[in-house]
């Protein structure tokens, strides 16, 4: 009995933690979506707010099935939760295998997606903040280089571009000095007119795709540990759900057997055997 309670409440606590996290993600995404303008980017791949809402809502639904099913011993909900986790796990493994076998294709698709994000810069505040964060974090600029920002209408380097930021790059590309306390948001102006070596004095010139791939290769243990930890957690939750379902089925089977036995005993008490011996004493 204690083992069953340990399985039950361990599964419930794991699902509850993810349930709370999913609720927070959904709330943050909803708030960001409401706060922004109506005519901004609304595609799933390029809208961080919409992406948070979708991921948070799916996690909320799945983890709710696990929480309620584990707490109330509802086998059908646990089976649904178990099936969804198995599908998610298989999709993750398949994505990893495809990414390993078709690295060039994945890199091309990633480059196209990142270039679309650069084109959409300034159209969505959340997307703009995400790009600025990546460029600051990895000390990079653009996808393949700092001149990729010519694909954006505001930073396009041409004589006909009336934008004040023409031929420039966002301030997140700028190299910050150690003792710098005031952020110079105009440091990227006109940097696309310079060659790579002169521009490298003020802005990062290496693309973010190369920097991210380099960071992943240099931190294989960290990336592998996080990925393996996530997969291991999913496998543990699958095992806990399967164990609880098995225990619930066993208890239900014992109850049916006991009910059938009790019913047979009641029938025997209603009808006497045909050749029963009665003592008239």
Residues in β-strands, percent: under 5%
- Which geometry do the CA atoms define? elongated
What is the count of β-strands? 0
Order of helices and strands: HHHHHHHH
Provide the structure class.
mainly alpha
Low-pLDDT ranges: none
Helix percentage range: 55-70%
* Mean pLDDT over the full residue set: 86
N-to-C span = 51 Å
**Rg, alpha carbons:** 30 Å
Written overview of the protein:
- This protein is mainly alpha-helical and about 280 residues long.
- The protein has 8 helices and no strands.
- It has helices at about 1-35, 50-70, 75-100, 105-120, 125-140, 195-200, 210-220, 220-270.
- α1 packs antiparallel against α2.
- The radius of gyration is 30 Å and the shape is elongated.
- The chain starts with a helix and ends in an 11-residue tail after the last helix.
- The model has no long low-confidence stretch (mean pLDDT about 85).
Write a compact overview of the structure shown:
This protein is mostly helical and about 280 residues long. It has helices at about 1-35, 50-70, 75-100, 105-120, 125-140, 195-200, 210-220, 220-270. The longest helix has about 50 residues, at about 220-270.
Summarize this structure as a short list of keywords or feature phrases.
single chain; 281 residues; mainly alpha; 8 helices; 65% helix; 0% strand; elongated
Helices and strands in order:
Blueprint: H1 2-35, H2 48-72, H3 75-101, H4 103-119, H5 125-138, H6 196-199, H7 208-218, H8 220-270
